[in-house]
Structures are given as C-alpha cells and as structure tokens.
Amino acid sequence: MGKGAAWLVLASLLLAPVSDVTAKPASAAKPKETSAKEEIAARKQLYEKISMMTGVSWQRLAAIDQYERSMSKAKPKARPQLGETVGVFIEEEKWVGPLNPDTEDHTPLSIKWFNGIGRDGDGNGIVERTNDTDLLYSIVSKIAQYGLSEDDFAIGVWEYYHNHRAVKRIKQFTDIYTAFGKLNLYEHAFPLPVGDYYSYRSTWGTGRSWGGYRIHEGTDIFAPYGVPVRSTCYGIVEVKGWNPYGGWRLGIRDLNNYYHYYAHLQGYDKKLKIGDVVKPGQVVGWVGSSGYGKPGTQGKFPPHLHYGVYRDRGLVEWAFDPYPLLRSWEVAEQRRLRAKK
C-alpha cells in the first residue's frame, strides 16, 4: 500500500465515530441463576477488590451499593437493574458525558473527554454500563476524589447526590456493616417475644381523631405493660424520645432503607442511644401506653405497641402496611423455636 492510500485509511479511521472503531462488548449470555449466598459472596469479593484499588473500605463500598439498591427498589421503573449483582444505577447521559454524541460510547478516553463518570474498573479497555466492576468503581471514584476522611468522604457523597438523606444513609449503612463485619444482615424477628400473651390484626388505614383526623399508619400489637419490645432487624437507632402522638418512641433504620417505628413505649433500654447499632431480637424497650399529650402522658388507651414501617424514596418517606411482614416474621420465628425443641 502506498503512502497516499495509507493516509486515506488513517484519516477515515480518525474521522469515523468513536463507536465505529471501538470494539463493542459482546452481548452477554443469559446469566445463570445464583443463590442468595453465592450473590453475597460475589458482592463481598467485588467490594474487597475495589477497596484495594481505591483505598475505600469495603464497608463504605457496601453502603454505597446498598443505598443505590434501596433507591432502585423504591423506584424500579426509573432505575432498572444494570449490573448482575451490584445495585448501582447511573443515567446514560451521566455515564458517557452530557455532550457526548455517542450515547453508547465504551471508550475510556472519549468518555473522560466529555466529562462522563464511566470508568474502566476491570482493566479490559472497555467502559461498560452493565459491568458490575465498572459501575461500582465509577461511582466510588467520583465520590472518593474529595478524600477518604469521614468529613471529606461525606462531602463527596453530597457532591454526587446533592441530598442530605443520602449522606446520612450511607454513613448509617457503613456503621452497620462495620459493627457486624459481614454482608448477610437481613434476618428479622417479631417485635415481641413470640408467645400467646399478645394479639394483633391489620389496623392499617383506620381513622384516628386525636390531634386531628388522620389514618393509622401501622399495626397495633396489644400486650401487657412491661412486655419486652425487640428490634425486628439489623439496624441503627435513628430517633429516640417523646412524640405527642407516639409517646416514648424509637426509630430504627435498616439496610433496606426501611424506618421501623416503635411507639407508646413504657421506657427504653437505658444503655440505648441514637447511633447505636442493634440486631434482631435485641430488647430496645417495653410495651406501654404513653402518648397523646405532653411528655409523660400515660394511660389514655390500653397498653400496646404501635409498629410502623416507612420506606425512604430519596427525598420523602412513605408508610406501608407492616402486617404482612409481622405475620411472616412471627411464623418464621415460631418455626425456628419448634426446630430447637
């Protein structure tokens, strides 16, 4: 080939769209189904790998991934699953860069040129928005550029999400993972010791009049004064204190980004404070009849635990009926108790 012809070939390559000269990843074969245990092991392995690459602890990586997963579960249509095991969702425009003409760009240099956040995490020379390693590496690299100290990392989280809730949740999730040192933290317990001294039914949506008309956002579990109230989950104490409606109440945040609300308590475990990490079955307080008035008001209704669950959608929280969860946790715990006999 002469020099003139060679230059024509080179020029055509240089002028061609980036996507035409870059090898696109082959369409992935349908992934085989994996068990929950295998998925958790794969995630832990990925966190440890990216931790070595970035200097970010695996607990923080897990917290970011879990926060992303909780947002996708709350908004499944707006945030479809991209990877196989991680929960990270990054918009296409944000991934390749807002001014990038090639929305399916897979080239590291051009994505960086257009200020996209997509990065090649596994070193194969291709940036893939459906690749678990690339997804998690990209979001963590963006956040960690502000530093790895607690304050600097919080700034990075804020700059990425522009949402104070995200900063708080990722810190809370990191604390939970750090306290227990493992990922499999999804066991649950019934909020009272399983037995025959309590009663409950679905009371979701029934009317309430004290303090103005409102609906009942939870399930009332009636039991004698002083019956232990237990954490239903692995979580972190987010709220503790008096509420005119709920009396002495407690709020616990879990890794699904659910807020577990315990109201009308007689009192708390004295050692428990905001920011403490708890586990399923741990006693956090006792059944009472506090509430419907100023601090200390008692006895305006029979003793019971009001239990509610709220899901964080990023900017707001909404309640949903906890009765099905309570029934499933009660049955599961009854089975465990029978198996031990």
Any descriptors?
341 residues; disordered N terminus; 12 strands; Glucose Permease (Domain IIA); alpha+beta; two-stranded antiparallel ribbon
Characterization of the model:
This protein has 341 residues and is of the alpha+beta class. It has ten helices and twelve strands. Strands 1, 4, 5, 6, 7, 8, 9, 10, 11 and 12 form a ten-stranded antiparallel β-sheet that branches. It has a two-stranded antiparallel sheet with strand order 2-3. Helix 3 crosses helix 4 (58-74) and helix 7 packs across helix 8 (150-161). The longest helix has 19 residues, at 36-54. The termini are far apart. Residues 1-31 have low confidence and may be disordered.
Shape: elongated
Determine the fraction of residues in helical runs and give it as a percent range. Answer: 25-40%
Low-confidence segments, ≥5 residues, pLDDT <50?
1-31
Domains, number: 2
Q: How confident is the prediction overall: mean pLDDT?
A: 88
The chain-level structural class is alpha+beta
- Strand fraction equals 15-25%
Distance between termini? 85 Å
Order of helices and strands: HHHHHHHHHEEEEEEEEEEEEH
Q: How is the main sheet built?
A: 10 strands, antiparallel
Number of strands: 12
Radius of gyration (Å): 25 Å
Query: What's the tally of helices?
Result: 10
Briefly say what this structure is.
36% of the residues lie in helices and 18% in strands.
